[in-house]
Amino acid sequence: MTCKLWPQINKEEYKGVWVYLEHDGARLKDVALELLGKARDLAAKRGNAQVGGVLVAGSDEMAQEAIYHGADKVVVVVNPELKVYTPYEYANAVAKVVAKYRPEIFLIGATKRGRELAAFIANTLTTGITADCTALEIDPKTGDLMQIRPTFGGTQMATIKTPHRRPQMASVRPGVFPKPPRDVNRKGEIVHEAVELNARRTTFLGAEKRIEHDIADLPPVESSDVVVAGGRGLGSAEGFKWLVELAKLLNGTVAASLMAVRAGWAPHTRQVGQTGKTIRPKLYIAVGISGAVQHMMGIQESKHIIAINSDPNAPIVQNSDYAIVGDYKQIIPLLIEEIKRAKAPQ
Predict the structure, then answer these.
(1) SS3 state of residue 135
(2) Beta strands 135-138 and 145-150: pairing type?
(3) C-alpha angle 283/30/208, rounded to 5°?
(4) What contacts 21, CB < 8 A, 6 or more positions away?
(5) CA–CA distance, 311 with 314 (Å, rounded to integer)
(6) Is residue 175 helix, strand or coil?
(7) For the chain, where are the alpha helices, taking DSSP H only?
(8) Using one digit for the tens of pLDDT, what is the confidence trace for 51-110?
């Protein structure tokens, strides 16, 4: 049943698959590129529809990078008031661009910023949003977007559709889809769109960088080939010092399980699993992690998994490529010394 408070729409007026192009001020976030790759796949199934991108306060170089990774058109939003990120103003700008170009599907990365913007944008456009999707497909019968995500608890997968509204919006966690190859021969269109904002609701006063501990200096978990993760089995935050040292030796980064984050041993930005980030490293080392199904959902695309655990019956041990059963306080120092010895000049 369609809500009478929402205006009726002509779905035929909505074409294409568009992506919100999140960036850090210098370069596009990996999740934006990953979504462009998926957008191309969805667009092909919709009859080679246009793939577009919305870039707020970004550069033409970023827009060109999006084209190299699959975009046909990139709209660069121009407004001096958008130099500093504020959620209401950014969402207002994105919603105006989406309302003008009318994509059939609009995708956004489920980052901290993306999650914040998605609800604003969906509400402004009077459409729905399915959060934290792990798969996206096109219904061959209706042409609707099939938005697939785990149910709460992670025991089942739910398929959600938006049959009466457009655009169909979904957010996707970083690392769920592979990043498409960069093709410098791809051609596309860059459009500069001057957007007037509604009355400002947010005033920016200043910024302050907060450092939790050494983990904050390591690369993001979703973009690292080697990830060393710690769980409740570490016993305390002190155990993460060993993991940081091991990760640095392997040119990798450190992640954490839900229980380790809840204990306050690592920041939420490092959490992997159903309620954290989905990653696909070449090597994943799980230290003191039981390996519940919710955690495994976030690491199942890892090429190799090594488990270090005192419990030989832990699920992570049964689902790893290699397992070391024992006390991590004895195993990790030995690993560190062996790696240092191997890397030392002969």
Answers:
(1) strand
(2) antiparallel
(3) 100
(4) 28, 32, 53, 54, 55, 58, 62, 63, 66, 74
(5) 5
(6) coil
(7) 30-45, 60-68, 87-101, 112-124, 239-249, 258-262, 293-299, 315-318, 328-343
(8) 999 999 999 999 999 999 999 999 999 988 888 888 889 999 999 999 999 999 999 998
- Fill in the amino acid letter for 12: E
Beta-sheet pairing, 145-150 with 157-160: antiparallel
Distance (Å, whole) CA 84 – CA 80? 9
- Closest by CA position to 333, among listed 320, 324, 346, 322: 324
**pLDDT digit string (tens) for 258-292?**
999 888 888 888 999 888 888 999 999 999 999 98
Burial class (CB in 10 A: 0-12, 13-18, 19+), 86: middle
Orientation angle between helical segments 239-249 and 328-343, nearest 10 degrees: 20
- Return the structure tokens found at 91: 């969402």
Would you state the structure tokens that stand for residue 50, as one six-digit string?
């246009």
Give the burial string for 209-219 (b: 16+ CB within 10 Å, else e): eeeeeebeebe
Express each pLDDT in 216-239 by its tens digit. 668 888 888 999 999 999 998 888
Q: How far is residue 300's CA from residue 297's CA, in Å, rounded to a whole number?
A: 6
Kindly state the tokens that stand for 156: 């089942």
- CA–CA dist 165, 8 (Å, integer): 8
- The beta strands (E) that lie in the chain are given as 17-20, 51-56, 73-78, 105-109, 129-133, 135-138, 145-150, 157-160, 168-172, 189-194, 226-230, 253-256, 283-287, 304-309, 322-325
Distances (CA, A) of 265 to 83, 121, 259, 289, 306: 34, 34, 9, 14, 21
Task: Report pLDDT for 2.
Answer: 47
pTM above 0.85, yes or no: no
* pLDDT value of residue 216: 67
